Amino acid sequence: AKGKVLVVGGGYGGATAAKYLRLLSGNQLDVTLVEPNSTFVSCPMSNLVVGGLRQINQISTPYTGLSRNHGVKMVKDYVTAIDVEKRSVTLKSGKTLAYDKLVLSPGIDLQLDKIEGLAAANASGQILHAWKAGTETVGLRKQLEAMPDGGTYVLNVPLAPYRCPPGPYERASMVANYFKQYKPKSKVLLLDANADVTSKGKLFKDVWASEYKNILEYRPNMKVTGVDGATKTVRFEFEDPIKGDVLNILPDQRAGKLAVDSGIANLNNRWAEVNYMTFESTVAPNVHVIGDAVQGAPLMPKSGHMANSQAKVVAAAIVAQLSGWEPNTKPLTNNTCYSYVTTKNVIHVASVHVYDAEKKTFLTVPGSGGVSAEPNELEGTYAWNWAQNIWADTLA
Ligand code: FAD
Fold this sequence. Notes:
The protein has 396 residues and is an alpha/beta fold. It contains ten helices and 25 strands. The strands form eight sheets. A five-stranded parallel β-sheet has the order 5-2-1-9-21, covered by helices on one side. A four-stranded parallel β-sheet has the order 13-12-11-17, covered by helices on one side. Strand 7 and strand 8 (96-98) form a beta hairpin. The radius of gyration is 21 Å and the shape is globular. It starts with a strand and ends with a helix. The mean pLDDT is 97. Flavin-adenine dinucleotide (FAD) binds at residues 8-14, 34-37, 43-44, 46-47, 78-79, 105-107, 131, 163-164, 167, 171, 256, 258, 291-293, 302-305, 307, 337-338.
């Protein structure tokens, strides 16, 4: 294989793609990764930081492994525009970079303006989402620590699809776990815009009933329309406003800003449509989109594991294209998503997906995957080991 591949975004999708483009091409491809942050902070396991079970440094990894171990050229910058015709990008610093192939994994854009008052309340630090791991994760933890016993933590779930289907339910469980031990008079109010718990529903609800009966309250069909950061009030489409002490508000989400600005998020101006065999954009030739920014085949969740899996499919497809090899017409992806429900107990959901040439999408492999029978400690060990393994696979 010969050529220049530019990877935009060093998250679960992009970092994995950069590494595997080098590995699968026998280090022949010239691979550059553009990412503004110097440290990778993981969203998976960040709910443990919110719940006080882990520290932020335990979920952070420097990017040095990609350059040192694999010869990926790291550029600490931000891509502001893509010129699909010229095959080049413009960086915030003003420089331009040319490519033969571009892998775009920009993650999500949080649509703060979809909830009245949220943008201002978020900018002032009054209301956090902590749906991108980093300073907000630590900030939310501090708000919970500062909250007096007897207070109410309000978390909402936006309408699906959003990043990490079980993520909000895990977060509510982790905060309830913290309250149960340290602030037993406090409450978690979980307000879901969806009609029911959309992932591992029965497992979560059973734990809430057995472990957090007087602490965690779940209400479906509650769509947040507005917030007031000063009075800590949440407003809804139909119901009366609710006041809390710590508000953790998650707005609707769409593909990362660059995908939207460049028109590559062509599905309702929200998610990117791709040819699933190679993840090449349906509107921008030579631009391959992966991770949360992609529309997502049926049942293919917006997860870090899935972004890592898609990255390997894309790396193989690009290496084949730039080598003149036959394409793999049956790529596979898989997903495992662990959720902590108490300090030690964890539940999981897993699935395997295969590309179907006739239907032009990924389908779940019949009989593959599954969910936990019940929360258990062994999966607690598996979950933390899963994180160590995927961080190594993505970044080392
Ligand atoms: P990201 O990992 O967000 O990476 C995007 C990167 O692109 C960022 O580093 C960003 O700085 C960079 N970027 C964006 N725009 C530009 C630009 N224009 N130029 C340069 N760089 C740019 N998934 C799991 O599999 N398991 C879990 O247990 C799990 N738990 C989660 C818990 C929480 C609380 C949350 C919020 C998410 C969780 N997820 C989990 C989901 C997972 O975090 C995402 O699905 C995953 O991060 C998606 O990878 P990505 O590459 O699409 O985006």
